[in-house]
Amino acid sequence: MPETDLSIFNELYDIIKDRKENPSENSYVCSLLSHRKGIDKILEKVGEESIETILAVKSENKEEIIYESSDLLFHLMVMFVAKGITLDEIATELKKRRK
């Protein structure tokens, strides 16, 4: 299996974090982070994308699974930034579970 560059996760996380620190009017991320419902709007998107990912897996369409999983990972990262959770903290937890 070829090695894949996973730096996109760090890059995306940094972009989301920057949007939180430097809001932009036309940014989807900013609209989620500053939504009047707060974290509830982000959690709504995480739930929606979770369901869409499940349905994609059930359909057995690989491209759809990749597409919906990407949406889910993106919205999870928005949630992490909103709650001050870093990717390093997630990686540390996953490493602990591997032992």
Automatic annotation (TrEMBL):
It comes from the Archaea. Pathway: Amino-acid biosynthesis; L-histidine biosynthesis; L-histidine from 5-phospho-alpha-D-ribose 1-diphosphate: step 2/9. One of its GO terms (molecular function) is ATP binding. One of its GO terms (biological process) is L-histidine biosynthetic process. It catalyses: 1-(5-phospho-beta-D-ribosyl)-ATP + H2O = 1-(5-phospho-beta-D-ribosyl)-5'-AMP + diphosphate + H(+). One of its GO terms (cellular component) is cytoplasm. The keyword Ribosomal protein does not apply. Pfam families: PRA-PH. Coiled coil: none annotated. It is found in: Cytoplasm. Its EC number is 3.6.1.31. Its main location: cytoplasm. Keywords: Amino-acid biosynthesis, ATP-binding, Cytoplasm, Histidine biosynthesis, Hydrolase, Nucleotide-binding. It is an enzyme of class 3 (hydrolase). Belongs to the PRA-PH family. This is Phosphoribosyl-ATP pyrophosphatase. It comes from Methanolobus tindarius DSM 2278. The lineage of its organism: Archaea, Methanobacteriati, Methanobacteriota, Stenosarchaea group, Methanomicrobia.
